[in-house]
């Protein structure tokens, strides 16, 4: 079929439009992909930056509080706190503040009622949380382990916070004196003071972040 000049011009114009659309679309897709990649990279860099600042700040803080800790113990405490906080999407400074008040960052701390480790977990609570998979003697040893104590303590705290509909203050109270006492409103004054100490340290540590 023979096309006249006018038809040929319109056909050529149509093809050019299609080609332009394809090129623009390709460039747009590439541009969007590039932007998404840059956003992802920036988020990763920010995350690394936050982690590095937390490690540096926390290392100095822990070193001042407990001068008896070895380098390995300091690094392990910081890493365990940070990893646990990421797992529960919780500010790591909250866990750090709790550890400061509970044990002064002493992995072998022993409370007057038998609480053990960084998070001062009672043996009976630990056995219950672990579904009695360990004998008492084994559990006593495990509670002195930084990794085990931090993971068990953080999971118990998050369980208490969840039980009180995300209320961190009530969760901390329950962690200290038991959920049943909080439900009944029978919270000792010592528990209120305990939670205030934790939150005071938390606000002090995070004032530069806010």
What does this protein look like?
This protein is mostly helical. The chain has a domain at 71-206: Lysozyme. The protein is 75% helix and 0% strand. It is built from 9 helices and no strands. Helix 2 packs parallel to helix 6 (146-163). The N and C termini lie far apart (74 Å). 25% of the residues are buried.
Q: Could you tell me the mean pLDDT?
A: 84
- Tell me the major beta sheet: none
Low-confidence stretches: 26-31, 40-47
Total helices: the number is 9
CATH topology of the domain at 71-206: Lysozyme
Cα Rg: 28 Å
Number of strands: 0
Note the overall shape.
Answer: globular
Share in β-strands = under 5%
CATH architecture of the domain at 71-206: Orthogonal Bundle
Assembly category: single chain
Specify the helix fraction band.
Answer: over 70%
CATH class of the domain at 71-206: Mainly Alpha
Topology order in helix (H) and strand (E) letters: HHHHHHHHH
Distance between the termini: 74 Å
Task: Map the helices and strands.
Layout: H1 5-65, H2 71-88, H3 92-103, H4 123-129, H5 136-142, H6 146-163, H7 168-177, H8 179-184, H9 189-206
Helix pairs in contact: 1-2, 2-3, 2-6, 3-9, 6-7, 7-9
Can you give keywords for this protein?
single chain, 210 residues, Lysozyme, 0% strand, globular
